[in-house]
Amino acid sequence: MRRTKEEAEKTRLALLASAERLFLERGVAHTSLDQIARDAGVTRGAVYWHFQNKSHLFHDLLDQVRLPPEQLAERLRAGDQAQPLEALRNMCVDALQGLASDTQKQRIFTILLHRCEFTDDIRDAAERHDAFVRMVIELFERQFQTVAPRLREGITPRLAALALHGLVLGLFSDWTRDPSLFASEQETSALFEALLRGLVTDWPA
Fold first, then answer.
1. What digits encode the pLDDT tens for the residues 58-106?
2. How far apart are CA 132 and CA 141, in angstroms?
3. How far apart, in whole angstroms, are the C-alpha atoms of residue 20 and residue 63?
């Protein structure tokens, strides 16, 4: 029984690896489950044993590199509660640095940001991804709510959260397109420092 479970997991990982490779080469919309099965050296039936459909497979592929919102929230809670924005800044910097040091993250985020059209066959995955994005923005907003009096006039916690998320998303998109745009931890940190100076009245220069 143990061997059977190990073999099943090995097959599942092989299918995810083949999907990752083909999605990166051809794009999500132009890759079929049949092609993934052939690339992995298994039958189409084996694909459906592990994944309900293409949307399910794509969602599991993204989950290999996305931290669940619960873990993100726990990390923010574990930070210095006297400095909630510093904890948020550090988490964002670490996310960019993690992208630069992890080749699988680079491939999967390249697929998500540059090789993916959310067509009908992955609509469920698209909806789950949208829900994930909303939860991340809500986490950001809660951090900004703790320092609402320090925000510049006209900047609400919601606007600040949207601005920060927009920067993170833009940097991920730009870096996966051209890693030479910014490389060092100092450069990455400076980008977030510049945004926070524009949002928070007493953010140090």
1. 999 999 998 777 778 787 777 666 688 998 999 999 899 889 889 999 9
2. 14
3. 12
Report the 10 Å Cβ neighbour count for 123. 11
DSSP character at residue 204: -
Helix (H) or strand (E) holding 13: helix 2-26
Phi, psi values for residue 121, rounded to 5°: -75, -10
The answer to whether 131 and 69 have CB atoms below 8 angstroms apart is no
* DSSP line for 18-71: HHHHHHHHH-STT--HHHHHHHHTS-HHHHHHH-SSHHHHHHHHHHTTPPPHHH
Do the Cβ atoms of 29 and 7 come closer than 8 Å?
A: no
Q: What is the DSSP string of 108-122?
A: HHHHHHHS----GGG
pTM over 0.70: yes
Q: Which two tokens stand for residue 192?
A: 């977030």
